[in-house]
Amino acid sequence: MKIGAFGEVMLRLTPPEALLLEQTHTLRMAYTGTGVNLVGNLAHFGVESYLLTALPDNRLGDAALANLKSLGINTRYVIQKEQHIGTYFAEMGYGVRPTEITYQNRKNSSFGLAMITDYAIADFVETIDLVHICGISLSLNEHSAEVAIAVAKTAHEQGKKVCFDFNFRPSLNQEPDKKRVMKERYQEILPYCNVIFGSVRDLSELLEWSMDVSSQSAKIRSFQAFLSHYQIEWFAGTTRHTTDEKKQLSGYLLSPTEWIETERYTLDSLDRIGAGDAFAAGILLGYSENWSLDRSVEFALGNSRLAHTIQGDVPLTTRKQVDQLLSHPTIDLNR
Amino acid sequence: MKIGAFGEVMLRLTPPEALLLEQTHTLRMAYTGTGVNLVGNLAHFGVESYLLTALPDNRLGDAALANLKSLGINTRYVIQKEQHIGTYFAEMGYGVRPTEITYQNRKNSSFGLAMITDYAIADFVETIDLVHICGISLSLNEHSAEVAIAVAKTAHEQGKKVCFDFNFRPSLNQEPDKKRVMKERYQEILPYCNVIFGSVRDLSELLEWSMDVSSQSAKIRSFQAFLSHYQIEWFAGTTRHTTDEKKQLSGYLLSPTEWIETERYTLDSLDRIGAGDAFAAGILLGYSENWSLDRSVEFALGNSRLAHTIQGDVPLTTRKQVDQLLSHPTIDLNR
Amino acid sequence: MKIGAFGEVMLRLTPPEALLLEQTHTLRMAYTGTGVNLVGNLAHFGVESYLLTALPDNRLGDAALANLKSLGINTRYVIQKEQHIGTYFAEMGYGVRPTEITYQNRKNSSFGLAMITDYAIADFVETIDLVHICGISLSLNEHSAEVAIAVAKTAHEQGKKVCFDFNFRPSLNQEPDKKRVMKERYQEILPYCNVIFGSVRDLSELLEWSMDVSSQSAKIRSFQAFLSHYQIEWFAGTTRHTTDEKKQLSGYLLSPTEWIETERYTLDSLDRIGAGDAFAAGILLGYSENWSLDRSVEFALGNSRLAHTIQGDVPLTTRKQVDQLLSHPTIDLNR
Amino acid sequence: MKIGAFGEVMLRLTPPEALLLEQTHTLRMAYTGTGVNLVGNLAHFGVESYLLTALPDNRLGDAALANLKSLGINTRYVIQKEQHIGTYFAEMGYGVRPTEITYQNRKNSSFGLAMITDYAIADFVETIDLVHICGISLSLNEHSAEVAIAVAKTAHEQGKKVCFDFNFRPSLNQEPDKKRVMKERYQEILPYCNVIFGSVRDLSELLEWSMDVSSQSAKIRSFQAFLSHYQIEWFAGTTRHTTDEKKQLSGYLLSPTEWIETERYTLDSLDRIGAGDAFAAGILLGYSENWSLDRSVEFALGNSRLAHTIQGDVPLTTRKQVDQLLSHPTIDLNR
Amino acid sequence: MKIGAFGEVMLRLTPPEALLLEQTHTLRMAYTGTGVNLVGNLAHFGVESYLLTALPDNRLGDAALANLKSLGINTRYVIQKEQHIGTYFAEMGYGVRPTEITYQNRKNSSFGLAMITDYAIADFVETIDLVHICGISLSLNEHSAEVAIAVAKTAHEQGKKVCFDFNFRPSLNQEPDKKRVMKERYQEILPYCNVIFGSVRDLSELLEWSMDVSSQSAKIRSFQAFLSHYQIEWFAGTTRHTTDEKKQLSGYLLSPTEWIETERYTLDSLDRIGAGDAFAAGILLGYSENWSLDRSVEFALGNSRLAHTIQGDVPLTTRKQVDQLLSHPTIDLNR
Amino acid sequence: MKIGAFGEVMLRLTPPEALLLEQTHTLRMAYTGTGVNLVGNLAHFGVESYLLTALPDNRLGDAALANLKSLGINTRYVIQKEQHIGTYFAEMGYGVRPTEITYQNRKNSSFGLAMITDYAIADFVETIDLVHICGISLSLNEHSAEVAIAVAKTAHEQGKKVCFDFNFRPSLNQEPDKKRVMKERYQEILPYCNVIFGSVRDLSELLEWSMDVSSQSAKIRSFQAFLSHYQIEWFAGTTRHTTDEKKQLSGYLLSPTEWIETERYTLDSLDRIGAGDAFAAGILLGYSENWSLDRSVEFALGNSRLAHTIQGDVPLTTRKQVDQLLSHPTIDLNR
């Protein structure tokens, strides 16, 4: 299966050694974004991977493009226009000090300004077998929302699989009217989708879907009603647990007939940003290769745990690494 | 004399060791801008210096503010609102390879979005004796142009000195209508001004002022007609000369009655960005301390030559350094 | 309340990535010291903050001054004379390997050589409402001890609040006679003080104050006798606990009538140097704003826990950060 | 025209800031080689570019591959086997201090060990229109020589263009018998070639071709006799001149009927390694697009001059940059 | 006692901050190897230490030599010939992500190519009192195996002590015949040895020695039979334990009459490579100074635990550091 | 000939990339000093080299010692006591901006505090054949002056050669009385000396020796009178020339009967600090190997020119490098 993603490429700037912005004159530079993370990771799994996005038509766009290529992503459908790339600064936390993300102008980025007519959507959809769309495209601005929905619709109509990641950030969508618009956009895209990444809160708060969480079985029934309603094949996500003095992570994956939840694994986290995308990449690998739910979610969670230990957003993991973690979890040195 | 400036603070990101963006994952981070460069340099000369500007209300704004303070700039009139700082990347050139500047979104920066009502203009003008305004404020967008003109007008009315730097970049002003608007804005601000930084081209192309350059004396007469028209006290600028295989720099300064031009000095340049602001800072120091034109322009050009040898935009030069260069130009080691 | 501190500024040099001095040719440079840490932190809390100190009259002094300004410290009372700054190297430990601090000449630093007549003590005391004095000034040499006592006395006489930090390092005071001198100096300064940072050991070993630690209530009575004797309002400190394989920290604060001790918090420590000063800054914030003892010590300890997670000595924490830690202790990512 | 190259990928390790190996614990890492440099540069000119090579089947091979992709090179014909990559250390010189290159084991590299049967030579040749072969392949060892000759022969037979770069290093070929073998190998490959990069010394010393250099016209006649003999279309090279205290570079290009030599340009050199490959890339661009000899050699030399100003071997130049240098040679800042 | 080692010097290249090779252009460079680690550590303990090895006769060899000297190793018996140094890349792991070691060509290194006649074996053995030989020399190739056995034999015959470290890596010895050859070589060297570092698996798998591990006493009896057979004085090693979510380490040391095993210490590991050599260095210190088994193994394990917290392979620990860990294990800051 | 030096080891801290102290948080660390530079360079020439000095008895002293060893210096006579190492910061200049050296406390360094009884002077002198003494020892303080004179006297009495470098810095010796004391100390040491490094100004200003510079022959006569007076064998030095826009360097060497002066070589200087010591090392090599004056001074000046192109003070040049510069001055790349 050839897999493509539609999503923004961002520039990430990170002070070294967990320093604060005031403490250093040096930054580490990387190119990232949900789509990049996902198809970059899939390319490392050996999947032929494509990205549909817009980069600036300047030296930053050139550098971003070189970086996408180095990840093994096919960049045939990446366009270059306008002059701005969405940027964020990540001051890495430590212990009780949280990581601080500071976003710079995204709405006026090349991706934010790109119109539906700028992209070769039909060709892109023709090329790939499955497309991943990030929910942030729905909330960034009207242009990106329009493209996202068009990509989903076109793919669905051509019999291609569609995967959608809720990725809903309430903080970015605080105007009351915005919330209504967002719900409509999400409702518009869901009928085209085969695989969904989301959470109880996404369904209940954003979509106002009735979720009964009084018991585990009630919760599963609520989820499966949602799946039936939109004819969704797979629904997956991760849960973070904070007990005592440790952080843990588990994953779940459900189909209309099955519910699989992993055990909770303790995290020793170097950089958790992008680790959710690693989970998604694992699930899509299983989906595209017809793995069982069980195998898929275990692989995906192992991949996500490894992604927590890699600097930066893009999960540079391979199948071999994930398989080794699952089969020999205590190895700490490969010679 | 207390000197203030109105201008944008930008984030500058520079790859180390003249590397290209594709060749490194590391950037050097600094905060800069014509106003910062000017009052930062004046603070190093011992002048009480103020900046009127708008920074983001986030961690980047905090870091920028810390940086302004470290330069010795009084930041009482710096406001923090919105979320974006104008940014540029400087890939440093070498030999025949030019330095490449790539700007990221400036129009939607905190500075670009700040309204006239956001600033404490009256208090700022009351505090200072001379204000410097950068021409880029006139071309950035309507908000910044409105503030720039208001600052100049208020200062003029209160008997404070006004200094204006043409800083006109044709590349940023290419729409035909834009050019007409710009000319009107420049014509509106000039009557308030005492000191101007500019060039023949600025007067002839932007203002369509009739400049006769058929002879040196004709050129001087044209300039002095301009000074008379707008009742300007000092007009200054630098000229770059490229002869054979070397780059040279000279400076000029004229009053309604005098014309001084320095000899041409060969440049051994490490980073020329900001060197024009160093010249301006030198001229303003002479102006504020009632130096002769001759002393002022020699000091200013020496300061600018030193600024070519300092990494980054902000000229961190001191009076002692400039004086040593002028009196002992061959010293290359101070123990 | 305006808060000032009298104390030494030191240059700190740290190898990157927990390397040893033999393993690297690169050092990270920062400017630090109890006074810097304290008023730098208070400036981040929005308090108008001053430092009374002496820096070298050379490029290192210039660089130190720029750094103090960037922290938001008002440097009006910082003098520059002589040529030397006290320096220390911090080889960061890891796990069972302790951090190694190597001091370079402090007695002959600009601070150590500055005389009482070099400082504008009267103006400084006039400007501020509360002054913090570090006990190291009493042990560094006669000059610094004389200034420290004069500052405390002048402040006390003018009705300003005085805060004193024992900061007694037995290793620096090993000659028998030195110990007697130190006791006399401490006894001389205590009557001027309102707030004290110290420990049981400081009182019993240095001052030879009779401390009954046979029970918690006996210990509190001993402390309160000490407070009564010197008419001290607040006495505070932290305690480190090592149980099993974890390090924990608690804080205490007592007034003549109250005793508050926090619970023990587990530390995940990146750099503990300066974390004691963060506790002091928190206490002084509470004191200067008339908070309850309870609120003050919880805030101070939260601040100190955050300081353990920040590279370098100076706690760059804000009220918002500390409040978030106290109210939402498990958040590890702010977007 | 699609252009491919057969050649070794090497790891280059460079101390920063012109430091010696004993002076630093840090190295800059890059992947390079004549073939990489050439097709990497052509990819930046917009040419569809391929590399035929062998990389280690380990993490270093993975990293090298990611790097080739980032240059825009199509890596379909890159194989991964064995465990070693040829490596060199470049201690950058300065002024009178020469750059020192230290090679590590190349003969046993994955490239050196790869057999003719490991490569998909037929498919590779089928895909491309012109292939570039580096002379080092002929001297590295028997395996690489066999592959190089097979690639040239196959391409010639299929009517594809063949370009060969003498790249003969006497220092690597000092055994007497080795010299005879080398001459035979060079004689074997030349009949398949359309474009040659070489020098007078290559022809006279290596091939023992009779070169009459008593006059410019005699030299040209000797060259053209060589071209006739092997039915070569273009022959090109550069000449370094050291006069007084400056270094200069000129280029030449001849066909059976024409001889073009550029003027001498003064070099301001940051890193000359790879600049010869930049010249070759420029010539091949002209050849593949049917430019005149004059335009081709001027473009190629401009490209090579720019390559002298870029850190590392790979010339990351674009057509736009070269065109700007040729048309506006004094521009030193692009905003 | 003067202690010498025979073993390979390798170049280690490590990306900073636990980055992967694809994520950085910067590497940290160090020189290492079992022999270097061991005698480098012993030199830090104040022991006169020698290394018998072969380095390249080029700039890398020069840099390696400077590095050995800086460790305090006497380099009189280090020869320089050939052009290649064995190299490995260490991508540091984190949490569940294992450290990845990638070796580059070792068989053709200067050490691998050095012949028995290249070394001054007799003089070397004459100079020292105890020699350490690393088992890797037996498996690298015939040349190094021949030298290793000759060194052991010569030392034994001259009444010098011989220490041998099994250091057997099955992964490097996978051909069936290779295994037989290896067993013979190990059997050939053992009769010359006084001190052995190894494990149950080394004895049972490599030597096919009958090891009864059904009970602790049976295991000890098996070991002691081995010691009797080869007249070995001391046999030592460490054991890694993975329980729950922590890693632990214990050490053992046995003589023909005693068996000492330490408790299990939890590891907080920064870089475990070389920590086994630190254990060996501690044992040899005890052996050479006639310490009790108990004191020796406790010191050795403390040394190894510290080595886990030091970047790089070479344990730069001192006696003072180890003694402090054993006597005051909770100190985390030395001022 | 075995050569030793008596002199201070200093810590040098240098911001990267010609940045100013305010512009970076990173410093490059090295250990240096006239004695280190000289014997470090001689060790690279293959001379057995010793240093007599005092380092701190702490981690900085340990690191300095490791660094001396890495240069190949025999450190048997280096003592460790006290806690402070003399330090200087070098802000590297560029073009017209001079390099700025900022010294930190030297008088109270371990070297400054070491007494004559701390050193094993007799053993040191016994070991070596020639000793080099730096004039700074005479001006640092009484302790170091006493040791310097004692070393010279002891060596002279034992028939060892003594070399003395005036190294007189008027700026460090400005008190009138100091000047008289200095003259006496210089006069005291000169009778013991065989080789002197100095200048016309040293003789005329410091020693008030009558120098007739009205003509070249008069100047030579004045010098030779000085040599006769003190029975000095060789007197050498360099002269800097600044003509037009270039810097040049020449060297001279005279014996009682000969005067040799080199031509002026243009400098392309990366770091001139330590280049005078490189000249001295070259002269001493020639002296110790009985070269002609001509060969000695040409080698020494070539060595000094190379030292100008090496970062840091210590000239890491080899005979091979110097010989190549003298015989093939235009080679800029060694493969």
Automatic annotation (TrEMBL), chains A, B, C, D, E, F:
Pfam families: PfkB (PF00294). Gene3D superfamilies: 3.40.1190.20. Keywords: Kinase, Transferase. It comes from the Bacteria. InterPro entries: Carb_kinase_PfkB-like, PfkB_dom, Ribokinase-like. Residues 5-208, 268-302 form the Carbohydrate kinase PfkB domain. Belongs to the carbohydrate kinase PfkB family. This is 2-dehydro-3-deoxygluconokinase. It comes from Candidatus Enterococcus mangumiae.
